[in-house]
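Bench notes, bay 3.
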Amino acid sequence: MKYFLIDLSNLANHMVGSKGKFKKTTHIWRTLPFQELFLITSGELHLQHGEEKILLKQGDIYITEKETFFGGYAPSTCEFRWQHFTLDSYEIVELDTPPTNTDKEKFYLPNKINVPDFQKILLTFTQLDQLSLENNNFECKYIRDLIFTSLLVQISLAMQPQKDFSATDKRFLSVVEYLNTHSSLTDFKSVKELATLFGYNEKYFIRLFKKNMGVSPIQFITNRKIELAKGMLAGSDDTVESIAITLGYDYQYFLKLFKEKTGFTPTKYRKSISPDYKKWKDLKL
């Protein structure tokens, strides 16, 4: 697999980015003098980069190399986010196993990775969108470069190898993965139902959750739903009421819970994270 070995002493030069949507559309073929980063938010994108064919699904991030011919090898139906950027100091390395970042001055960035909790990544995309609408002075451009470089570091950290877990721990991790990747968390009605789904006794399941995660299952799920709500508020024009319904909450209770957890009402949070979200939601850069 290919990795970008990046020198942290140089910031990535962020250029432009926006949303994309294909409906049975084949991506155009082209050669770019800079890198392009794709994040698939739904559906599947069929790309060919050089001689390699790549199938990208929800949560996948893919980074192209500059001066390389790429495009679609088949029609795609998907929604995605993209960013154009350049790196002044890096090299391409091919490794059989994921590397560990041990050099404080450099880090490895995979050219393809799946990030289970891509809602957090979407918040960074939203910040970049908002900054792109503002005056493109030196200060604004520098902040964009800082934020985009931090995004690359987040992607790099997502590939770091995990410790070796026992069979019991691995079964529990499948629960955590389920909760981290589901889009609404409304498929079960109680902790007992969730525990049964994964073959646990309810009381043991609660103890196991507190031991491994530091919170009860209900607290973990609530925190997860609030993070999902943040992503929906920042990355869509869905009404607050529809977001509450999607997450399985009564509207009034959701307003109270969201303010309790974040210090903001949902509407104030949306305006604080992207004051001009109605302008950029259909922005074509």
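Next record in the batch:
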Amino acid sequence: MPGVRIEQAAALRLDEIYRHTRDRWGDQQAERYITGLFEAFDKIANHGVVSRPIPAEFGVDGFVFRYERHFVYWRWLADGDVGIVTLLHERMHHIDRFREDFGL
């Protein structure tokens, strides 16, 4: 079964999500949300989440799915693992943030 690797931009976003959720709704909610995200990551390889291709204008091959208030961008890595590229809140302008994360 493929593994899941969190890429640098995604790791930074996960930290932001955790801190924001903890500061706004407490430790328990932050833990629940992050745990739910990682459970969703584990479901990718088995098609346990419904993903669609990342729009071409983003300039990166891969897929995206929604988890509660965030969109999770991911791709297949050369070794067959799943690479979590980044996570963006539903209110963010995705193309701009995606380009910011990747210097595109």
